[in-house]
Amino acid sequence: MSDRTLRSISALAGIAAPGRYGKTEGEPGVIISELAGLGLATVACRKGQAAALSAKVKQAYGVDLPASSHVAQGPKAKFIGYGPGQWLAVSESLANETLAGDLMAKLEGLASVSDQSGGRTVLRISGPRARDVLAKGLPIDLDSRAFPLGSAATSAISHIGVQLWQADDTRSYDIAIFRSLTESFWRWLTASAAEFGYEVAPAE
Amino acid sequence: MPAPQPHRLTEGGLIDRAQKLRFRFDGRTLTGYQGDTLASALLANGVRLVGRSFKYHRPRGILSAGSEEPNALVELRTGPRREPNTRATTIELYDGLDAASQNRWPSLRFDVLAANQFFAPIFGAGFYYKTFMWPTSFWEKVYEPAIRRAAGLGRAADAPDPDHYEKANAFCDILVIGAGPAGLSAALAAARSGARVILAEEDFGLGGRLLAERYEIEGRPALDWVDAAEAELEALPDCRIMLRTTVVGVYDGGTYAALERVNDHAPVPPEHEPRQRLWRIVAKRAVLCAGAIERPIVFGDNDRPGIMLAGAVRAYVNRFGVAPGRRAVVFADSADAFRTAADLADAGIAVAALVDARKISSPATQAEAEKANARYFAGAVIERVQGGHGVRGVTVRTADGEAERLECDLVAVSGGWNPSVHLTTHLNGKPKWSERLSALVPDALPPGMNVAGAASGQFGLSACLAGGEAAGAEAAQACGFTPKGRSFAQASSECDAASPIWQVANGRGKAFVDLQNDVTVSDVKLAAREGFRIPEHLKRYTTLGMATDQGKTANANGAAVLAGVTGRYIGAVGTTTFRPPFAPVAISAFAGHHRGPDFRPARLAPSHQWAKEQGAVFVETGPWLRALYYPRRGEEPQDAVNREVANVRNNVGVCDVSTLGKIDVQGSDAGILLDRVYANTFSTLAAGKARYGVMLREDGFVLDDGTTARLADDHYYVTTTTVNAVKVMQHLEFCAQVLWPELDVQMVSVTEQWAQYAVAGPRARDVLQAIVDPSFDISNDAFPYLAAGEVTVCGGTPARLFRLSFSGELAYEVAVPARFGDALIRKIVEEGAAFGIAPYGTEALGVLRIEKGHPAGGELNGQTTTQDLGLGKLLSAKKDFIGRFMAARPALTDPSRPSLVGLRPVNREDRLRAGAHLIPKGAEASAANDQGYVTSIAFSPSLGHWLGLGLLTNGPQRHGEVVRASDPVRNGDVEVEICPPCHIDPEGNRLRV
């Protein structure tokens, strides 16, 4: 029955092809890669279950749930705070819908979980000019003194809502955008990155 | 071959004589050097006449050397990059620059409309208001077009701007505005402390006035100090120097707007680079070091080319190595300006005389005159100017009343300096009058802003250096940094207080107060006589202080003249309000990336790519692009829609409904929340079932409708209309967070997560059976109308299935994670081919629901109640809900309210039009007889004629009656029969098969 199965398709299909674009001299200032296949799910604490939820997440995923806009990185998943009692869970190993299923099973009665793995495009923006590109849209300060490693933010770029967190300490940022707005975001991103030269890496 | 540069000095200046640049002005090819502005290059070539004035078309030259320039406005570049009203004094020269003078016809030297100046009495202050008052009808057709041809300045480009503009954000501890001596000192003090510093400078080099003067700091040329400061700032990791960047506005919360002219100094921006970038800079503290702007003295014919601010003369000589004239007269009322004589003389330019307007003879100035080999006239003024297209001489009225004529081609004039206080006033601060300086100085400052140097009224160089350093250190301290030791740089120049004369009384010729707007002393006097006695009124009446320079060289003199005329103390006259932007900003910079297709983001549905391949025509619904219809080759739009509708009625169709708002509402109290939000009840809905619901606003009117499915006891899946998705989400969040925080309810938008397709038509189940995995029974018994559940499709893909119908046919909605959306629509169409499936767009969707009589956008218009829409029976009497009480108000329950009816043309050939008003048959089409209107229309292929929905007084009681649908705007006046809204299967049998 393999021909019956549905093929997952990136919102960037037909829009972003791997390669070098914009200014061609020198090393690319910006590297853009899509983090495809991530497990993504929203986790919202049930009434009066904050302590129990924290304990369960600690036990099941090995992380302390952050109380504010921060990333808590665990071995299987990271939890990103985006509102009081609300987190976006992100996982590479628990890919796509698996993460939501895993969370629903483990956090039953403690949190409301909704799968979002199909509803977001997640891009990793790195390279020496990553911050300069983001500055053309993001109205928040990414300097490490204001946005240290582990910070996360919900904001807007080019009138498009984004969730953003620092991927590692090499000035690399992961940005989740609504799937339907991927093409508009991509037009802004590539127009803004062109002057630095950018590379579209193959999807991870 | 371009001519050599006859007015270029043989040596000196900050230009690079090794880099010759060719440029064109009014078609003539000329040369300049790297480091020139267009103004300095024109002067180097002996071009003094560069434009014609706004109203009188008077010949004009170059007054200043900065962004305050009122006269030397040119059209820069050609074709789609042509930009009008650019200031030659701020345009950095580049090879290939092409500029043209403005506001002249047929040529700059001979201009027909210069005759205007002889009719000056007609064109006095407020002439627009007085002259063109009657007949009224003439304004639009005759007067305004004529004025527009005669006045105005440059021409905008008539093609879209091919360049890219962008916006950007920057953050720092301390923003230093201006990189003159004070700004550099402030930046050094701030950056040395470790603070993050942005130094924004309008010019293309650091130094400010130091570039234009021959000052010394610590016993060495001031420019050495500038170079050292620049090197140190560049070496500090957290200091960013932004050249060609003008801070144009101050906003709340330490936010500043700045325009960076990234590539205005290139004919075409390098590939991939923007032309300009509009910055939003957020700074904890700001130090304003914007310097000061010199003011002219008002005297007869003071607008002639060759009359230039003294500071500008020094800039052209010292910075640009240009002789702005061969024989100069310096006319000023302060000692500072007479330094110009030495600079001129040392550059080999003859100085005819120093005309000192101060009453008491100054030995120091007399000595300056002797050193420059110039005559010295103390207590004297320039009374007349000879020369039309350029100064040829001046008549000096000496202290003892004698008139003496002096030959000269350059008049360096100074009436003192005005601190650039503009940015201190953008948050409503008012500057105050300084008696010592005879100028406005900053008073109350925007939060977080400090002022130093000339902008604060500290005119001496030592004071600028010390003040800047102190302000920078103070700002650093305020941000939590510890300033390093002070340097106390000592400098050469000191400045004295001013005692300006403002204007020369009893002069001859037109005495201009505002050169850009052609406002003269007589205009100000006339305005004052007519009662416009405060600066804001004076500005509106005379245009003094308007346009690109916003009166930077005119406002102070205007206030002084007004004070004189009205017999008031100048400090009491006040000033106009300086608003952002400080300097002109092109609209393209404000638009940035958001032009054309990027004007605003577009949301694309999961089937978008597939629909594009099918040749769909798209329509904007809210932020979404949705397929309107799918025309086949050679098919007219109406035919396509008719075919799509008929196919749903007869076979099966598929439509992307992913754009509907989808909200996961979870928690043990989810049902309670929905009961309170919806007019009908959801807590009683069984898991695995869906129900149509209506929610009201607090005021009792309908907010939105949609279907909600209960997936589990503690999990509902709410759908909203596409357009109201955000509003409903906000409403639910408000209810949960503010009204009933005690409820255990969590909600999140899952609109993006699910690609959802409606499959509708008699063969819908056949199609779905090929899609839904066989382990799920979707037979009519197992999965009846309004069933809902989680299934898998196409071999294991998780999905949600709903048996809902908007068309009135057997129908399902199937949802999969959006990443499978593209594959699913292809699979549905592939599997459905055997059953005659065809996609249908929003147009067909609309026809289907009008045939079925379902209210939608045209009826859910914020002015209708559930009763109006025939949904009154949905209102639950067993519970409270938002809007219940207000919906019971008498006016909202009045049975005569216009209510939903179906409409069909009596003559079946007639076309209906939405918006037509319903008038009783035989009655006049007047507001008094208005009984409602047509809300939605469609051509019904099922019935073969047009159909409508409408809201009509006592509508449901009037089925069978004939009324007029009157549409005077589109000449439509047809008779329509009132009927029940539902035309297809009113019993709903087709839904349940």
What does this entry look like structurally?
The complex is a heterodimer of chains A (204) and B (993). With 204 residues, chain A is α+β, with helices and mostly antiparallel strands. Chain A is built from four helices and twelve strands. Chain A has a seven-stranded mixed β-sheet. The longest helix of chain A has 12 residues, at 50-61. The two termini of chain A are 27 Å apart. Chain B is an alpha+beta fold. In chain B, helix 4 packs parallel to helix 9, helix 16 crosses helix 21 (842-852) and helix 19 crosses helix 20. Chain B is elongated, with a radius of gyration of 38 Å. At the A-B interface, strand 3, strand 7 and helix 4 of A face strand 8, strand 31, strand 39 and helix 20 of B.
End-to-end CA span of chain B: 90 Å
Binned strand content of chain A: 25-35%
Fraction of residues in H or I helices of chain B: 10-25%
Low-confidence stretches of chain B: none
Euclidean distance between termini CA atoms of chain A: 27 Å
Parts with pLDDT < 50 across at least 5 consecutive residues of chain A = none
Main-sheet strand order of chain A equals 1-12-2-8-11-10-9
Q: Number of helical segments of chain B?
A: 23
